[in-house]
Design goal:
single chain; alpha/beta; Serine Threonine Protein Phosphatase 5, Tetratricopeptide repeat; 2 domains; six-stranded mixed beta sheet; 12 strands; 13% strand; flavoprotein
């Protein structure tokens, strides 16, 4: 079965993609009759060397995203994963020559089709008297034994674009740029890894991987790699990649060792989430620095993709100060990142947290709750939430992310860890305030914020008194905060429904002679009934409000969790005979 793609036609997708880039970038122009993009200010290059690159489409933003002052003059694009036509390459060479450039350097990735087509265009252009040189970039570090075809051209090619572009912008001649680029190309390597393949529009995936497999050393055209390894953590995968890239027994290795200074590129092959890319980048920086390698610059993003391939490539380029100046040189290319011109290694990455404000004296501290009872209540609540994790997640899947149980379990474990550190505050106001801060920090998600709001507001009335009317007022304050900031109201199918129902019953605590257990029992029963009633409600707030009510035939998980917490508190207090 062919994969789904958002294209107009399979045949025209490469043309449409390039046209879209040019349409949104006033600094680019299309060369009429060819799949070629050029700088719109070609006339400003008179007397300088032009840089042309390209290859098959499907590697976006490479190569057209790197057209601009300080990088490429133009790009010739082929169909998806197909070398560009000789005629288009020659037309691009003629166009930049006629604009008054003093020579053209072709930067070509080491693939047979690219070498042949760019090479033939170069020969024809030279026959016409146009000075043209060509560098073939092979930065693949996958193969431990050198193949006759040589190392494949991968993401490191983008660094060559940058170095050559900086030299050309500085007015360096064609021969010197060619020689210097060839030297730089020998000091870098790239290795890729992928969780699965990609698929050319109109075709099936190029290879299949089982759930527990990862492809190591693959190319950028969906071709299989050098080996398959078992799925592992990001740290383990990155360590394996760097070991392979730098091992002296590997003929295509990068000679990186302790004391080396490198530029690191972490390249998304197209389908990884930003979250995963960040994790990989962190692992790469930590691993390299742990080996004594200085990371002079780190570039993280999508530079040379393989359509939607969910994978990553790491590129290492050995650098010195003169080469770093070329990497740092200004460019207007849209896909080149805004990289800080300072070393990554050696920079302080953490800042001390602000000091907590001193707590104001609490007049209710002497009236504090018995600590053993407080600890028991919180421990039982934690046990309840941990036991409900799968049930709450199942209820939450109907509304989207299915993590309500996980979030509440995270809160429970955070509270358990906090209780192990020492006794909680005896003051009810301080207890609720501390719990609020803990949940805001550890629970996460909207639930953490909502519980934090509720507890912060509920703590305020308890600073003056801790009798039953004060606890009722605390409930009122918490509910008011939930409605003010959470934008939910009773009947919106949220945790507020359970808490609101309980809060209405707790109003009775404000009456003289109110009975603690009678009122609390009614409050818990009302909360449980309200939680069950949410399955008949149309969601008016939260993520569930975006889901059709016809699909929501289970109670709201937040309301169920809130009711369960209240039930646990009641049962513990009853067992203690408060």
């Amino acid at each position: 079965m062919n994969s789904k793609k958002l294209v107009n036609t399979v045949e025209g997708c490469a043309d449409d993609a390039l046209a879209g880039l040019v349409a949104c970038n006033p600094n680019l122009q299309l060369l009429q009759g060819h799949r070629v993009a050029l700088r719109s200010d070609l006339d400003s290059l008179k007397g300088r060397v032009a840089l042309l690159s390209g290859g098959g489409s499907g590697h976006e933003p490479a190569h057209a995203g790197f057209i601009g002052k300080g990088m490429l003059t133009g790009v010739i694009a082929g169909a998806v994963f197909t070398s560009p036509a000789v005629g288009s390459i020659l037309a691009a060479i003629r166009a930049v020559a006629q604009a008054g450039t003093v020579g053209t350097l072709l930067i070509v990735k080491n693939y047979t089709g690219d070498r042949l087509n760019f090479g033939l265009a170069r020969e024809q252009a030279q026959a016409e008297g146009i000075p043209v040189e060509m560098v073939v970039i092979g930065d693949d570090s996958a193969f431990t034994v050198l193949k006759k075809a040589g190392r494949r051209g991968l993401c490191g090619t983008v660094l060559i674009h940058k170095v050559a572009g900086a030299l050309a912008e500085a007015g360096v001649g064609l021969e010197e740029i060619t020689n210097r680029v060839n030297v730089v190309a020998k000091a870098m390597g790239t290795l890729g890894v992928s969780l699965s393949s990609c698929s050319v529009p109109g075709s099936r995936p190029t290879f299949e991987l089982s759930q527990d497999e990862v492809e190591l050393g693959l190319g950028i055209h969906g071709e299989a790699g050098v080996c398959r390894i078992k799925m592992a953590s990001a740290n383990e995968i990155v360590t394996l990649m760097l070991d392979h890239m730098t091992a002296s027994s590997n003929v295509s290795h990068v000679p990186v060792q302790s004391g080396s200074s490198v530029v690191l590129m972490v390249n998304n092959l197209g389908g990884l989430s930003f979250l995963e890319v960040g994790i990989i980048a962190d692992a790469a920086v930590r691993t390299l620095e742990g080996r004594g390698v200085k990371i002079a610059r780190a570039l993280v993003g999508t530079f040379m993709s393989a359509l939607e391939m969910p994978g990553i490539s790491l590129t290492l380029l050995l650098v010195d100060e003169p080469l770093l100046k070329l990497i740092d040189a200004e460019t207007t290319a849209s896909a080149w990142p805004n990289v800080a011109k300072v070393s990554v290694t050696g920079r302080k990455r953490t800042r001390a947290a602000p000091a907590e404000p001193l707590e104001a004296p609490d007049s209710t501290a002497a009236e504090g709750l018995p600590l053993k009872r407080v600890v028991l209540v919180m421990e039982r609540v934690c046990t309840t939430l941990l036991g409900l994790e799968e049930h709450l997640n199942a209820l939450d899947r109907a509304a989207g992310d299915g993590d309500c149980g996980t979030t509440h379990s995270r809160a429970a474990r955070a509270i358990q860890g906090w209780l192990k550190e020492g006794p909680p505050p005896a003051s009810p106001a301080q207890l609720l305030s501390r719990l609020s801060l803990l949940l805001l920090e550890k629970m996460g998600g909207s639930s953490g914020a909502l519980y934090g709001l509720f507890l912060t507001a509920a703590a305020q009335p308890l600073k003056a008194k801790t009798d039953l009317p004060a606890w009722s007022a605390a409930m009122d304050a918490g509910l008011e905060a939930l409605q003010k900031y959470g934008k939910a109201a009773p009947g919106d199918r949220t945790m507020l429904d359970s808490l609101w129902a309980a809060g209405q019953e707790l109003q009775a605590w404000k009456n003289p002679g109110a009975n603690l257990f009678q009122v609390l029992t009614k409050a818990v029963q009302s909360a449980e009934a309200a939680a069950q009633a949410t399955k008949n409600m149309e969601a008016g707030a939260g993520r569930a409000s975006y889901i059709s009510s016809a699909k929501l035939d289970q109670p709201d998980p937040g309301a169920v969790a809130a009711a369960a917490i209240l039930r646990t508190i009641l049962e513990v207090l009853q067992s203690q005979g408060v």
